[in-house]
C-alpha cells in the first residue's frame, strides 16, 4: 500500500486491540477493516511476504520461506515445526485460538513421535541388562580414603625409628658421658683408619664394651689434636676395643687377625652379636631403662679440649653426639662450634634456657640481689597489693565479710 | 628588767645542715611483649643496677605491667606522685627521666613570675600604726 493511501485508511484504536501487544500501523489498518472475517484476518497478519493466495497448485501455495527451508535441508519434509517462519500472528492467535490449537497439537504430536523413534540406544541396552544409573554418590566405590585414612591400621611403611635418641639427655653427667663416648669412638676409628661417620652404625654398645670405653682417657695434644690423644687403661682394653671397632665400617671377618680375634672372644661373647646391628639397637632402645648402664659421669674431662676444627671430625663427632644425647644441632651452631667444650655448652644452654620473662632474669640477677633498695616483683602490682602493704587489707576484708559481700 | 623580744631561731630548711631527698620511691613498670618497652627493658637490664647503687635512699620497685606502655612513677614524701610514660624511649633517655623524678620536689609545677623568690620577711619590716612619728598632714 502506498504511504499516501495508508494515511487515508482508518486504523484500529487501542480499545479494540490488547494493550499488551504492540501493533504496527499496517496491522491496525487490517483490524479496522469491518468486511473481513476473523479467519481471513489471520492470514495477512501472519504472512506479510509476497505470497499469492489466488493460485491453486501446491507449488504456488507453498510460501517462499518454506521453499527456502526445503532447499536448505534438501528434502520436502524438513525437520522442525511445520511452519516455523509463518503461521498465525499474535493477533490472530488472540482472536481465533482454535485455529492455532490444531497446529500446535500437530506439532506436539510430531515431536513426541521423534522422541520415541530417536531413543538413546545405550539407555535401551542398560535398561535391558538391569543397570540402574546412580543419582547420588552414596554406595559408589571410592578411590582413596575420603577422610577415613586414620581408621586404617598402620602398615609397615608407617613405622618410623628416629636417628637420634627419643629422649634427650638432661643431666650434665650423662651428656658428658655421651660426649666422652663419641670422642673415644672417633679416636679409635681415626687410629684404625676407618670412616668416621661409620661410628653411628651402632647405636649402643654392650655394657662390657661401654665399660672399656668409659675407662679410656683422652689427653689431647697441642691445640686439641686428636692424634695420640686416646689413652687406654691397659693393653687388653686396647686390643678388645680395636677388635670391636675393626668390625664397624664394613670389614670382612677374614681380615681380622686370628690372635686378636681369640683374645677379644674372651672379653665377652655378647660382643660378637654385631651382625644384626639394627635389631640389637632397636631392642636396646625399647628395653633399656637406664642410660649408659647406670654410669653417671666421666672419669676425666680431657676430652673437652679436643679440637673440632677439622670439618669431617666435627661432623662425625656432632652426628654421634646428637645420636647419643638426643640433642639436635642447628647449622649456625655447628658452624660456630670449634671444640668439644663448646658442644657441651650448647647442650647445657638448651637444657637450661634463659628465662623468657624479664622479671625472672632480674630476680635471678646477682647484681640486683645485692642491692637492698631494689625489689623485683614477678607479677603486676594491683590495688589489693597496695592495701596489703598499707595494712588495711584485713580491715577491708573484715568489713566486707560483715556486710556479707565476701565469704 | 627590760622586755626582750623572742629570739629568732634559724628556721628548718631542707638542705641547711641536712638534705632529705624528696623522692622516696621509684616504680618502674614495663611490658615483656610490647615493643614500646624495648628501651625500658634494656634500662632495667643494664643501667638499673648502677642507678640503684647511686641512689640507695630511693626505694626502687620493678614490676611488669602487661600490654601497657612503660611508666616511671615517683613517690614523694609530701604524698604526691609523678608519673612519666617512657614509651619508645632509649635507655639513656629513660635514665634522664629517672633523674628528673629523683630531683623533683613532688610539688606541682608552678609558673615563676618573679626572678627572685624568698621565704624571708621584708627587710623593711611590717608597717604598724603605733610606731613611727606622727605625720602632719
List the helices and strands and how they pair.
The complex is a heterodimer of chains A (407) and B (137).
Chain A lengths: L2 H4 L18 H7 L6 H9 L11 H4 L2 H10 L16 H6 L1 H21 L3 H9 L42 H21 L14 H9 L1 E2 L11 E2 L3 H12 L11 H10 L9 H11 L23 H15 L5 H6 L3 H12 L6 H7 L1 H4 L4 E3 L6 H8 L2 H10 L5
Antiparallel strand pairs in A: 1-2
Helix pairs in contact in A: 9-11, 9-14, 9-16, 11-12
Chain B lengths: L22 E8 L7 H17 L4 E6 L6 E6 L4 E5 L5 H13 L34
Parallel strand pairs in B: 1-2
Antiparallel strand pairs in B: 1-3, 3-4
Helix pairs in contact in B: 1-2
Structure characterization notes:
The complex is a heterodimer of chains A (407) and B (137). Chain A has 407 residues and is an all-alpha fold. Among the domains of chain A are: 1-47, no CATH class; 172-351, no CATH class; 355-407, no CATH class. In chain A, 48% of the residues lie in helices and 2% in strands. Chain A has 20 helices and 3 strands. Chain A has helices at 3-6, 25-31, 38-46, 58-61, 64-73, 90-95, 97-117, 121-129, 172-192, 207-215, 235-246, 258-267, 277-287, 311-325, 331-336, 340-351, 358-364, 366-369, 383-390, 393-402; strands at residues 217-218, 230-231, 374-376. In chain A, strands 1-2 form a two-stranded antiparallel sheet. In chain A, helix 9 (172-192) packs across helix 14 (311-325). Chain A is elongated. Chain A starts with a helix and ends in a 5-residue tail after the last helix. Mean pLDDT of chain A is 77; it is low at 35-56, 112-117 and 252-285. In chain B, strand 3 (71-76) and strand 4 form a beta hairpin. Chain B has a domain at 41-85 and 102-107. By secondary structure, chain B is an alpha+beta fold. A 4-stranded mixed beta sheet of chain B has the order 2-1-3-4, with helices on one face. Chain B has 2 helices and 4 strands; from the N terminus they run βαβββα. Chain B has helices spanning 38-54, 91-103; strands spanning 23-30, 59-64, 71-76, 81-85. Chain B is elongated. The interface between A and B is medium-sized, with 20 and 22 residues.
Amino acid at each position: 500500500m502506498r504511504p499516501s493511501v495508508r494515511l487515508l485508511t482508518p486504523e484500529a484504536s487501542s480499545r479494540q486491540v490488547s494493550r499488551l501487544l504492540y501493533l504496527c500501523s499496517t496491522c491496525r489498518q487490517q483490524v479496522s477493516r469491518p468486511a473481513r472475517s476473523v479467519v481471513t484476518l489471520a492470514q495477512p497478519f501472519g504472512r506479510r511476504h509476497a505470497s499469492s493466495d489466488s493460485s491453486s497448485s501446491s507449488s504456488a501455495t507453498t510460501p517462499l520461506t518454506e521453499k527456502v527451508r526445503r532447499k536448505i535441508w534438501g528434502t520436502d519434509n524438513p525437520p522442525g515445526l511445520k511452519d516455523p517462519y509463518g503461521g498465525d500472528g499474535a493477533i490472530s492467535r488472540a482472536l481465533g485460538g482454535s485455529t492455532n490449537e490444531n497446529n500446535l497439537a500437530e506439532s506436539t504430536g510430531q515431536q513426541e513421535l521423534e522422541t520415541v523413534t530417536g531413543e538413546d540406544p545405550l539407555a535401551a541396552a542398560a535398561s535391558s541388562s538391569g543397570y540402574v544409573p546412580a543419582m547420588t554418590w552414596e554406595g559408589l566405590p571410592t578411590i582413596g580414603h575420603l577422610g577415613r585414612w586414620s581408621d586404617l591400621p598402620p602398615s609397615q611403611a608407617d613405622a618410623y625409628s628416629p636417628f637420634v635418641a627419643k629422649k634427650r639427655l638432661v643431666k650434665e653427667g650423662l651428656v658428658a658421658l655421651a660426649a666422652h663416648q663419641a670422642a673415644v669412638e672417633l679416636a679409635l676409628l681415626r687410629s684404625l683408619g676407618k670412616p668416621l661417620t661409620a661410628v653411628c652404625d651402632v647405636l649402643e654398645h654392650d655394657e662390657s664394651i661401654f665399660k672399656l670405653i668409659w675407662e679410656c682417657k683422652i689427653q689431647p695434644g697441642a691445640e686439641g689434636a686428636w692424634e695420640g690423644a686416646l689413652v687406654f687403661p691397659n693393653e687388653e682394653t686396647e686390643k678388645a676395643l680395636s677388635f670391636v671397632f675393626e668390625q664397624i665400617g664394613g670389614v670382612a671377618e677374614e681380615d681380622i687377625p686370628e690372635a686378636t680375634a681369640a683374645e677379644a672372644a674372651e672379653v665377652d661373647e655378647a660382643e660378637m652379636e654385631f651382625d644384626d646391628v639394627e635389631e640389637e639397637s632397636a631392642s636396646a632402645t625399647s628395653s633399656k631403662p637406664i642410660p649408659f648402664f647406670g654410669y653417671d659421669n666421666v672419669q676425666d674431662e680431657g676430652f673437652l679440649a679436643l679440637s673440632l676444627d677439622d670439618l669431617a671430625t666435627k661432623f662425625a663427632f656432632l652426628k654421634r653426639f646428637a645420636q647419643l644425647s638426643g640433642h639436635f644441632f642447628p647449622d649456625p651452631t655447628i658452624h660456630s662450634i670449634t671444640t668439644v667444650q663448646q658442644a657441651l655448652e650448647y647442650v647445657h644452654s638448651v637444657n637450661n634456657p634463659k628465662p623468657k620473662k624479664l622479671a625472672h632474669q632480674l630476680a635471678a640477677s646477682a647484681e640486683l640481689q645485692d642491692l637492698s633498695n631494689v625489689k623485683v616483683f614477678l607479677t603486676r602490682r594491683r590495688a589489693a597489693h597496695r592495701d596489703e602493704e598499707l595494712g588495711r587489707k584485713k580491715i577491708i576484708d573484715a568489713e566486707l565479710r560483715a556486710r556479707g559481700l565476701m565469704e | 628588767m627590760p622586755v626582750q623580744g623572742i629570739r629568732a631561731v634559724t628556721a628548718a630548711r631542707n638542705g641547711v645542715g641536712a638534705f632529705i631527698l624528696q623522692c622516696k620511691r621509684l616504680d618502674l613498670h614495663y611490658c615483656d611483649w610490647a615493643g614500646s618497652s624495648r628501651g625500658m627493658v634494656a634500662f632495667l637490664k643494664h643501667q638499673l643496677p648502677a642507678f640503684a647503687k647511686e641512689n640507695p635512699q630511693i626505694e626502687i620497685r620493678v614490676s611488669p605491667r602487661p600490654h601497657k606502655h612503660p611508666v616511671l612513677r615517683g613517690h614523694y614524701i609530701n604524698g604526691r606522685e609523678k608519673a612519666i610514660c617512657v614509651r619508645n624511649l632509649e635507655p639513656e633517655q629513660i635514665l634522664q627521666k629517672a633523674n628528673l623524678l629523683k630531683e623533683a620536689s613532688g610539688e606541682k609545677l608552678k609558673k615563676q613570675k618573679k626572678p627572685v623568690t624568698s621565704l624571708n620577711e621584708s627587710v623593711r619590716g611590717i608597717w604598724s600604726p603605733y610606731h613611727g612619728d606622727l605625720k602632719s598632714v
